[in-house]
Predict the structure.
Amino acid sequence: MMGRTRACLRNLVQSLRVGSSSSYKIGGYYASQAASSLQAEYKPLTRSPGEDEYADVDWDNLGFGLMPADYMYTMRSTKDGVFEGGQLSRYGNIDLSPSAGVLNYGQGLYEGTKAYRTEDGRLLLFRPDQNAIRMKMGADRLCMSCPTVEQFVDAVKQIALANKRWTPPPGKGTLYIRPLLMGSGPILGLAPAPEYTFLIYASPVGNYFKEGLKPLNLYVEDEYHRSTCGGAGGVKAITNYAPVLQPMSRAKSRGFSDVLYLDSVNKKNLEEVSSCNIFIVKGNVISTPAAVGTILQGVTRKSILEIASDQGYQVNERTIPVEELVDADEVFCTGTAVTVASVCSITYQGKRIEYKVSDQSVSRELCSTLMGIQTGLIEDKKGWIIEI
């Protein structure tokens, strides 16, 4: 196992050093204070420095399944809505009141970000401040107290450091980091919860789709809708995701990779895929549906728009009628989990539209640049990378 890991590391070129930040250490090991009542019992690390550099994982066969890393992070709000006293603890179950706001009224949000390992073993984070800002937007929409941007980013750093041995070798995957914000305080009548819990856990992951790096086959859904005008589709509310399970399961049972949704008003304009944003390419123009309340403002989406503009493409955020899929040169999806995924076909009302995908595709070009920045192989000139 370690032989394969070292061989993989040797195959990657020396990464560029970017940024720096402080970390929390106790006696040379990453640790924390005693756990709160919402945390599992904390057990300090007992490994010697340099021992168990990697967890015992088959890195060559990682999927996008849950493989809990050693530690999670928990922080609770006070009665006046201020978060304080965040701590690391061993990954485990939490105590939660049956009348918690998240269980009774769905008062919850989640985010997704990743930690990347460089050839020389450093850890890089990609724009976690943007995830923090988006969580704050969602918290405002759902009347929730929320950690500050600084608290959010600091907690993500702590989780990445504490779980470093679960971060895959370069080219084998990433450490997926899942921040959660939930109404943990008890409430009976419909109202904001009196207390909130911010929790983060992590898991090593490979490709999101079972097809791996193969292009996707999408199905356009015209019966069910992911979100509606005036709803919470534009924020990462937990309530956005259960409703897509039925149409997504139905599409996958028919051999499709995922579902592409249309707007709920006109039922003819593209919105997004179940868990990622959609882009179409026509000549030198790259377009994506405008995020006007029903579409999530993805961090990867935002980054790809900027990278594409830097590379000379004309980028548009606009209304895109489903009919434009017929004439598109290329279609691709973006998201933290999927990064940039090419689409080889889209089926709408029984008609299949096919797209050519090659190593010279726009999506592959953009993906290569994005991943190069994320993994330290391309110099970060935008201040997107945080090195731990």
Notes: Helices lie at 2-11, 101-105, 128-141, 149-162, 245-253, 299-310, 362-374.
